[in-house]
Specification:
The structure holds two protein chains of two kinds.
Chain A: H1 24-58, H2 61-65, H3 81-112, H4 116-131, H5 134-145, E1 156-157, E2 160-161, H6 166-190, H7 194-202, H8 207-218, H9 220-235, H10 239-244, H11 258-264, H12 270-277, H13 286-315
Antiparallel strand pairs in A: 1-2
Helix pairs in contact in A: 1-13, 3-6, 3-9, 3-12, 4-6, 5-6, 6-9, 7-8, 9-13, 12-13
Chain B: H1 7-10, H2 15-52, H3 63-72, H4 87-118, H5 121-136, H6 139-158, H7 161-166, H8 178-202, H9 206-214, H10 219-230, H11 232-248, H12 251-256, H13 280-286, H14 294-322
Helix pairs in contact in B: 2-14, 4-8, 4-11, 5-8, 6-8, 8-11, 9-10, 11-14, 13-14
The chains are: A mainly alpha, B mainly alpha.
Chain lengths: 321, 332
């Protein structure tokens, strides 16, 4: 006898009854659903193809290695090497903060989580952070980093702290990626059945050691998925970069210490470069904007494919209960 | 003798307690930072609300003139001007986000039903990566396509010369319009809604749908009357999330909706759809280089506080709308 299940697995391929016997309104509804499904595919294909075509038309390899410069026409304004490097740098900086902090919060929520009211507050805060618009995080960032005691993170002249630097933008971008990392890692940790933990405790391991040696390695696909989703969000964000990175076309270091001065200085990323060069921005060079947007889309596509592959590999792991 | 000592007494600081304490401290710091953010934004926004009172939300005068007056008065602390009536911006946000959510809701519901029940296997395998891809495209890329494709199309093919001439004294109809903003925002928020609706529809117990089919109701009606009805909490959750995303969208809307603080007038007939405007988030990002002037700073933070408040209100409205549905037992 088969037992009834609340939510059954997808059944064997059903043969839906032919819609010829339905009422007219139902058939129209099905046709509308088909139309919308096809429309979505067409819109996506149109966006991707259009960007590919225009991007390949305007993207020359020299653009990837030339620095931007001020000029009047497309041939005088250089390429987008600086924004490209800055995108990578700032993504690395913000993920370097978001991933460890996100894992720590997820571990606390799933393994410890006491006292219970604090756990509820933390969950609500992470959810609130996920729903906060990035422009609001950017406004708060200007407030926070113009405070005198954080002046070492950006340029200072006299008593006025400029407040715009790589540190400022990376800090706020990491807040943007944090909820994605936390929810993904938490799901991964909760999917590990309890007998694995119990086996580890039974041989005398502490909770901390169990987490570090058993649980986190097992949850590695979720950590990777969460990080890549967070990375996608960080690379694609414009508002925080426009407000907090200073919007200088080339990198503008401040101070004399080699790397630290660059990080305390200003710059721009691919997203703010596209925003600047769109017809509504100050630069108004559609060709450069297309080329940069094409590179951005390629990065995001690569991340998307990566998330897909990791998700597929993660699903192949089965816990023998 | 060491053999008689219990394990708990051998190490004075248990590594688990230490780990819990350190992780708990980190968690508290992050939560404190986020809560401090809200408090500080409200604190910085207060002067603008204090000077205007409830008229801050009302209409009165040109928003753009008020903004430049506020900015230029920032040089002199005693003659700082705070007068600001934000209704055109609020109305623009309501129109654009409301329109986009309505369009996206209808389309996403049909597509979600299609993906879960009626699409053939090959179509489902195409649609799911497509939806995920649309969700991951950066908003500045949507804005670029909007500016370079949608806006010229509307300008050249949809707005007639007669319409342009009829509004010349007040505004210019050049394609940066409500229609472009609503359409592109709908495409941006639809993937989010589709993903949540699909999860909600998949959580409907199979037996309920099969019972309806067994009674002789055709699959289309079964899914709509039983499945979609049961998945209402997921529909609400998806709509709330998509609305919050739409309200906070600054970059794409600043590129596409026009940069005029104008309140579109529905009484204008078809011209209404082509009128430019500027929602709240786009206003903030357009005026970002004016943060140096203190009154302007307070005004921009006040706009940010309105965004914050609306995101909180949306969450609360979603929670309140889900309460009567709890007795069904199938929550998103």
């Amino acid at each position: 006898m088969t037992s009834t299940q609340a939510v059954a697995a997808p059944p064997a391929p059903r043969r839906n009854e032919s819609s010829a016997s339905w009422r007219l309104t139902d058939r129209l509804g099905l046709a509308f659903a088909w139309f919308l499904g096809v429309l979505f595919c067409v819109i996506t294909a149109a966006i991707v193809l259009y960007l590919f075509v225009e991007g390949i038309r305007y993207l020359r390899p020299s653009l990837l290695v030339t620095n931007p410069s001020a000029g009047y026409s497309e041939s005088q304004t250089g390429g987008f090497f600086d924004p490209l490097i800055d995108t990578v740098v700032i993504a690395a900086m913000s993920m370097a903060v978001a991933v460890p902090v996100g894992i720590a919060i997820a571990v606390w929520l799933s393994e410890f989580g006491r006292p219970a009211p604090l756990a509820r507050v933390v969950e609500s805060t992470i959810e609130m952070l996920a729903g906060t618009p990035s422009i609001l995080l950017a406004l708060f960032g200007t407030l926070l980093f113009e405070a005198p005691w954080l002046g070492f993170l950006s340029r200072t002249s006299g008593t006025v702290v400029f407040g715009r630097s790589f540190f400022a933008a990376a800090a706020m971008l990491s807040l943007l990626a944090l909820p994605l990392v936390v929810s993904s890692v938490r799901e991964g940790l909760q999917a590990i059945p309890s007998h694995v933990r119990e086996a580890s405790y039974a041989v005398g391991k502490t909770k901390a050691a169990t987490t570090r040696r058993v649980l986190l390695p097992a949850a590695r696909p979720s950590v990777l998925t969460g990080s890549m989703l967070g990375l996608g969000r960080v690379i694609g964000d414009t508002a925080i970069v426009v407000l907090l990175l200073g919007n200088t076309l080339t990198n503008d270091p401040s101070g004399s210490v080699p790397i630290l001065s660059a990080l305390r200085g200003t710059g721009s990323t691919l997203t703010s470069y596209v925003y600047y060069n769109a017809p509504t921005g100050d630069g108004d060079q559609p060709g450069k904007a297309y080329a940069a947007a094409f590179v951005l889309l390629l990065m995001v596509l690569a991340l998307n494919v990566g998330v897909d592959l990791i998700g597929r590999r993660g699903r192949d792991l089965r816990w023998n209960s | 003798m060491d053999d008689d000592v219990l394990i708990e007494e051998q190490s004075p600081v248990d590594p688990d307690r230490r780990a819990e304490f350190m992780l708990g401290a980190l968690v508290c710091v992050v939560v404190g930072l986020v809560l401090a953010m809200f408090v500080f934004v409200l604190h910085e926004a207060w002067p603008s609300f204090a000077h205007n009172g409830l008229r801050w939300f009302g209409a009165g005068g040109s928003v753009d003139n008020q903004i430049s007056a506020i900015y230029t008065s920032g040089d002199n602390a005693t003659r700082a001007v705070y007068t600001f009536h934000a209704w055109p911006l609020i109305w623009s946000t309501i129109l654009i986000v409301g329109g986009a959510v309505i369009v996206a809701f209808v389309c996403s519901l049909f597509v979600a039903v299609f993906i879960v029940e009626f699409a053939p296997e090959w179509m489902r395998a195409v649609l799911q990566p497509v939806v995920r891809l649309l969700a991951m495209v950066p908003s500045v890329v949507y804005g670029l396509i909007g500016v370079l494709v949608v806006v010229p199309f509307i300008n050249n093919h949809l707005i007639s010369e007669h319409s342009k001439a009829s509004v010349t004294p007040i505004i210019t109809l050049d394609g940066y319009s409500l229609l472009a903003a609503v359409l592109i925002l709908a495409v941006m928020i639809a993937p989010l809604m589709i993903a949540i609706f699909v999860n909600g529809l998949r959580a409907v117990p199979r037996g309920w749908l099969e019972g309806s089919l067994a009674l002789g109701i055709n699959p289309w009606r079964s899914v709509w009357k039983v499945g979609v009805r049961t998945a209402r909490p997921a529909l609400i959750a998806g709509t709330v999330l998509a609305t919050a995303r739409g309200v906070g969208e600054a970059v794409m809307l600043s590129m596409v909706s026009g940069s005029v603080g104008f309140a579109p007038n529905p009484a204008d007939g078809f011209v209404f759809f082509f009128e430019p405007s500027r929602p709240i988030a786009a206003t903030i990002i357009d005026n970002v280089d004016q943060l140096t002037s203190p009154p302007m700073r307070h005004t921009l933070y006040a706009l940010g506080a309105v965004l914050l408040f609306s995101a909180a209100m949306l969450s609360f409205a979603g929670w309140a709308a889900k309460q009567p549905l709890r007795r069904y037992g199938v929550l998103a």
